[in-house]
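User: quick one
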Amino acid sequence: MIEFRSVSKRFDDGTLAVDDFSLVMPSRQTTVLVGSSGSGKTTLLRMINRMVDATSGELEIDGENVSTIEPVQLRRRIGYVMQNSGLLPHRRVIDNIATVPRLNGVPKKQAHERALELMDTVGLDRDMAERYPSQLSGGQQQRVGVARGLAVDPNILLMDEPFGAVDPIVRADLQQELLRLQRELDKTVVFVTHDIDEAFLLGDQVVILEKGGRIAQKGTPAEILAHPASDFVASFIGADRGKRALSIQTIDGAQVLVDGDGNLAGRLVEAGPA
Amino acid sequence: MNLFVDAWLWLVDPVNWQGSGSIPVRIGEHLFYTGLAMLGAALVAIPLGWLIGHTGRGRELAVGISGAARALPTFGLLFLFVMLIGVTLRGPSTVFVLMLLAIPPILAGAYAGLEVIDRRTIDAARSMGMTEWQILWKVEVPLGLPLLIGGLRSATLQVVATVTLAAYVNLGGLGYDIVQGIQLRSYDQMLGAAILVILLALLFDALFAVLERYAVPRGVRAGRDTDVRTTPTGRRATAELTATT
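Assistant: Done. Structure below.
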């Protein structure tokens, strides 16, 4: 469990990125922080592994205050996946995945075996182990990034817009892959995105942020969609327009659904077993 | 044309290849001062450049110092130091002046090599739990090596050419033959020695060109073939750098 208690962050240039933020991120669930730029979502994420230190307030991981943990040690037990993968360009895929175990003193052979297993886990062909990051596609690089994040089998996985830079088809693929991984691995995932569709798809708990890390609303995707807490949330999730604003029209006795743009979205049927 | 033939004859004359003031001895002296100055300059400039490149602090200072040092008149400086420090210590003062000449390009190569690395790569290394030393040695140094070698390359060329001046304070080197040639009006000797300096410079340039090429990490080189948008490294960036500093 990750708990923020009245956490604030003011950067050296005076910007108040996060203002009095409190939140509990339950273990073994995916919490998605979603908001536009300037909402402080990345800052919040980076506080968890102390890439950013809070100016005030407390941040605990399983009851342990992170400010008492040495940053390097803390980071080595938390997986981190970033946009553009952040792979080391001069190291082969297998060495990239094995980086943190090697830093922790795991023998090379063992670390490489584990890396190959992780390549299977994230759906990468083992043939790619000897390649360099620049020889992979964007989607493959992100998979390597995820494998690297999982290398030390961390309890917590931080993901900072990991699928933001790949094309929509690859993104959809990676999102499904992450859902599958999460069912298998049961990590505490903290996921940052500006894409509300992605947030609703992946999040057990979705936290919609306004400027300065102020929570506009938090809850399950269904709760948020059913009862947007404010006009801001309603507008942010697009509840009043487009493909989320469905209305029923009756045509020859059958009911069809039409979205906010006037396009047919489907037809109304009896709810079956989920 | 005749002059070149004479110079060639001087170069191949067996008499000039034996004894105390012979060509091999002069080349040896020349290389000795070059090596000593380069070693001293590298020991100062590389750690300092890495410190600046890693922390991002002091860049303006480094650029300023580099620029100012480049404008220094080496010849005047050489005499100044020999006179200030004393004729008995003319060896060390010559090496010191040559070091001043070599430091700016090495410093620039060292910090620029670190500076051109994608910040996201460094950020990723840090967020994985690398210590600052590990970031430096495992990420920044390997990725910055081509530019550093580029800096060493231009420093070596300048020093090899400038060691010629050491003859004016009676320290030998290939400059000795040139200076003596001027005084004796023996142009064959002058030109022959000058050709040797040029050959040494070309030799070092070729050597560093090869080193620079092999210093590019395999993954980065592999990326260049497929992705032309990679950050500028190698010669192009060195050229830009020299232009800006």
